[in-house]
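Protein: Cobalamin-binding protein
Species: Noviherbaspirillum aridicola
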Amino acid sequence: MQDDAGDTVVLPRPAQRVISLSPHVTELLFAAGGASRIVGTVRHSDYPPAARDIPRVGDNRQVDIERLLALKPDLLVVWRHNTSMRQMEQLRQLGIPLFYSDPHRLQDVPRAIQQLGRMMGTEQEAQRAGAALQKRIDQLTERYSRRPQVRVFYQVWSKPLYTLNDRHIVSDAIRVCGGENIFGRLTAAAPNIGHESVLQENPEAIVSGDRDDQAQATGIDFWKQYPGMLAVRRGNLFAISADLMNRAGPRIVDGAAELCERLEEARSRRTEGR
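Structure follows.
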């Protein structure tokens, strides 16, 4: 089976002892019916709630190889970006199969669930979950993708201020909702930008992937000091849970549904004369 790095991964038998090296991977494995097969994961793997009880082997930047090996995994599912490639190559040399997961589009998520289900021998549950998720994506696309376009600034974090380009799955959610990511064409996947650049682009809506513990003064409300900006003038400052938007797991479809509703609000305010 081909992973998101383009490598072919072959298992001699369905995986029974899987380690997830990213929070979004943990969510994918649960959705694929693999709850009982996950023997290790990383920090911030907190959903579904049962994931909090899984032993930790590090975080998505650095793992404790000794602890990982003690769990005797027969499959590692890895996020390509924040994981230490040196460590991953070391584990590969030890003969542990690695499967890279890096969904860039909403439709990649149900596909990933079904792939992982095949690797764990939980095909039936994974097929059902993937099909149900794909149906929801299709419904959102049909309802919103052809609506009048809304120019969107997506704020990942405010200090430093950075966003995401069109290769990130968040931009695909914006597209499905009939929006345009104003910084989508930038080269870097998560570019650091200046406030002046946002002001110059004058987006119609600003969406922030805020965490519950993120102070509003440094989150979406920061922009209220610029009342002349279109998004501020029309009240189109929208905060959506970062765990729904920034993780490329099943819940991103919930985040996309909320995003579509917020962009529809922005469209409705075009007639209010502001």
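Remarks: The CA atoms of residues 39 and 114 lie 20 Å apart.
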